[in-house]
Fold:
Amino acid sequence: MEVYNTIGRRKSSVARIYMKSGNGTIKVNNREFANYFTTDVLQTIVKQPLVTLAKDGDYDIHVVVKGGGFKGQAEAIRLGISRALVKEDAEVKPSLKKEGFMTRDPRAVERKKYGRRKARRRFQFSKR
Structure:
């Protein structure tokens, strides 16, 4: 029984995925998947690659995720699971790529500039 080890990133989140064949349990940071991601939207995001390939209950997945918020973490896990599925069977890559699960989303927070309140927002102007 081989364990597929991949990594997924999104914004400032980094997710390490350990996937092996099993009965479909997903653990995130040694917690149950449903307890870590409490909303249905985030649970759906994480399971999208498995649902797309109709392999929802075929793998045991252990995830170690750090950084960012819940949305970024969920999307990092999605990318990691997609990469693990491709590592296991390269023939599924076109269907996952068509859905956009194989592409790392490069968008991140723009850095703050000096003389500004945020990255682009100016300080409030006072005429008098």
In short: The radius of gyration is 18 Å. The mean pLDDT is 94.
